[in-house]
Amino acid sequence: MRRAYFYLVIASWIIGGCGEEATGDSVAADIDLLPEWKLVKEQRIGRANDPDTGFTRVGAIAEDRHGSVYVLDAAERQVRVFGADGRMIRRIGRAGAGPGEFDLPVEIDVIGDTLSVFDMGSRRITLFSTGGDVLGVVPTKGVPIKVGDSAPVSVAPRRLRSDGKFNSTVRIASRHGALPDSLLVPELLFNTRGEVTDTIRWRMFYPDKWPEIPLRNNGTVSLTNIPDRGAPLFLAGERRRVVVERKPAQSRGPDYIRLLLYRENDSTEHRFRYRPNRGIKRKAVVSGIVQSSGLLTRGGMSASEARQTVEKLVSVPEYQPPVSRVMLGADQSIWLQREQWTRDNTAMVEHWVVLDMAANTMARVILPERSRLRWASLSHIWVVEADELGIPYVVRYRLAS
Prior knowledge:
There is one protein chain. By secondary structure, the protein is mainly β. The protein contains 3 helices and 32 strands. The protein has helices spanning 12-16, 282-293, 303-313; strands at residues 6-8, 23-25, 29-30, 38-45, 58-63, 69-73, 78-82, 88-92, 94-95, 101-102, 105-111, 114-119, 124-129, 134-139, 143-147, 150-160, 166-172, 183-190, 196-205, 212-214, 220-222, 233-237, 240-245, 255-263, 267-274, 325-328, 334-341, 348-355, 361-366, 372-376, 380-386, 392-400. A hairpin with a 2-residue loop joins strand 15 and strand 16. Helix 2 (282-293) packs across helix 3 (303-313). The chain starts with 5 loop residues before the first strand and ends with a strand. Mean pLDDT is 87; it is low at 1-20.
């Protein structure tokens, strides 16, 4: 069977006119003035000297309707299941390429009595019963999106829905050539065979781009740790989609975030006022890129030459984008992460703005230093923390007003 392609001929005037639209408009709430919910620690899972709960690298967390928690240890290529009392019930999966085995698992979800594990390395989604039995394997080859003579991205199945279908994600090809700043892509639904069953709508996709620097030995170096340029964030959930427009502010004065919420039968626009946070100083950003890029080692450049090269290619905004990540809670609540840094710029403290499923503002949640949110609802959250040796463990916090 021939591979299906979406052929896109996109003129610049079309791209410019494909902005997101929504009906309705909410009053602009000031998210910096929202009340702060307190964190009440209820449970910790993880001990360095316990083979059942000693984790290596926690990649994702999920919770089922019975209160059992599923922890993906990405390094061990295994999901561990714990009861509501914190005791381990079972292990699911192991390293390998066979049925029920993982290469590079990055994401898990529990929908009803089904555990879904997205394996980026094997390019497949494995479905298990919550008891650990393999129910099926979904290929994630996806549909290439062809632009001109190349197919720089593809649209592939990603997250399981309650109706047994899968929402789609956009994946950049390993050999993609030059990427445009934006690209019109379809939102698709897939079945358990990895086949397209429906096209929901079209949207703009803004690929991450890393400048490449030619070296004297004819090789190239890709610059990483590039500052966030503030392209819109997109997230598809259960019969809903969230788009967050979050361009960095140009001044210290109050600015606005625009959130578009699409449901099956309607769409609404919400605006939130915030006070911009200054980004990391340009000198520190450039220094970090130089050290991580390999320009001093592989490139054979002097420190001053490498610094000047990076400064010409990398734009460092004075202010951070107001939102760095968007996340949907298990109860369809909406969580917007506002990154904050400690005074010495050595550690990030996650600040979250919590909205209900209709995008009404609820509160702010500030995590302990170096904690990372992995699962959320309006009643409690699961985060990843680490002990003094850097060994991770997971903690359940109840949210209290």
